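BUG: 3D viewer hangs when loading the predicted structure for this chain

Environment: internal workstation, default settings.
Expected: structure renders.
Actual: progress bar stalls at 90%.

Input used:
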Amino acid sequence: MPRTEYFEIAAKSALNRVQHMGFNWSLNPYQGCFHSCVYCFARAHAKLADRDPGAGFSARVGVKVNVPELLRRELSGRSWKRETVAFGTATDPYQPIEGTYRLTRRCLEAFRDFRTPVGLITKGTMVIRDIDVLAELSRRAKATVCFSIPTVDETVWARTEPGTPPPQKRLKVLKALVDAGIEAGVGMAPVLPGLSDSPDQLEATVAAAADAGACFVWANIVYLKPGTKEHFMEFLGREYPHLLARYRDLFPGAYAPASTKAPVMATVAGLKRRYEISDRRAWRAEPPPEPVQLGLAV
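Structure tokens produced before the viewer hung:
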């Protein structure tokens, strides 16, 4: 892992208005991410913002130091309707620098105080530090924690998510949250064709989620928008060159064809029934529906 440089940012707002995502508001205290996941969809957002979506996405991480204060101001406004806020949609709120700045914890305290429901998604185990605030928020409004665990295959994990805690450690923290009365579960995303989509791999992940007491499980195939695609293809060429041709065929655009996605979704759905995992949430921290593909690149 290369050394990460951190720089402070004075943000102009905390809450971001979102369209076509299944939720209306998002919050991201950081810009870029130490975790260095090779497939991260947020790399595409970085490219759109004229930031480096490649190595620089993890090498230079912005810290929005004034976000907690801005958030309290926005939540106290008369126009705020206490809608659910998606927390961590473009960067992980529990990457290591959170231990120093505590921005995520201070934001969670604001949501608790203003009784605003939150859906948080993370690969970080530091979330256990905030179990007290999350429990209070769960009682006052609603708090859902989704652990991104695409696979429990340790070889695939180590190569594709080099800066993240091991999946089994995430699952231990998930169990602790569920035992504390916090709704927590697993997002198996992204599943990588040819790397983490075999029936045995999918079952191992669903079984591990069930064993940890996950309240829900959902899955999605990787999607490769510009910014993400270039970085991921470079990774494949380096680590799995035999898969390059397959991915070029599967991804003329951003999304894999239904013939690739449907079997994975069906397998996961069947495994959820077998392991008796039912999704009780009204809000889902997952990507929006993919556009209908009519044989054209998207």
